[in-house]
Write a structure and sequence with these properties.
Layout lengths: L7 H6 L4 H7 L3 E5 L7 E5 L9 E5 L5 H26 L1
Antiparallel strand pairs: 1-2, 2-3
Length: about 90
């Protein structure tokens, strides 16, 4: 596994620590659902959640705008989840 300091996104962020980077940005993992790669799953863990991940299925033949829209919804769902959980915990 690559160290975070090797990630181009981490270096481009200008942040001084991996913790700061993880506090600001959402890590999205994308994997093929099957060998034919007819469907991909993008998943992300809301901030502060070790055991819960939210995911969305992506059609690799969809246009960039549709994939971007779905990834944006995944990001929004993770932010909403974290917000609701923080309200409940406080």
């Amino acid at each position: 596994m690559q160290k975070m300091s090797d990630w181009s996104s981490y270096r481009a962020s200008g942040l001084k620590s991996a913790k700061g980077f993880e506090d600001v940005y959402l890590r999205v993992q994308v994997r093929a659902v099957n060998e034919a790669e007819l469907l991909f799953e993008a998943s992300a863990k809301p901030s502060g959640e070790a055991d819960i991940a939210l995911s969305v299925l992506l059609n690799p033949f969809a246009d960039d705008e549709e994939i971007g829209r779905l990834l944006g919804r995944l990001n929004d769902a993770c932010l909403r989840w974290s917000s609701v959980v923080n309200e409940i915990r406080s």
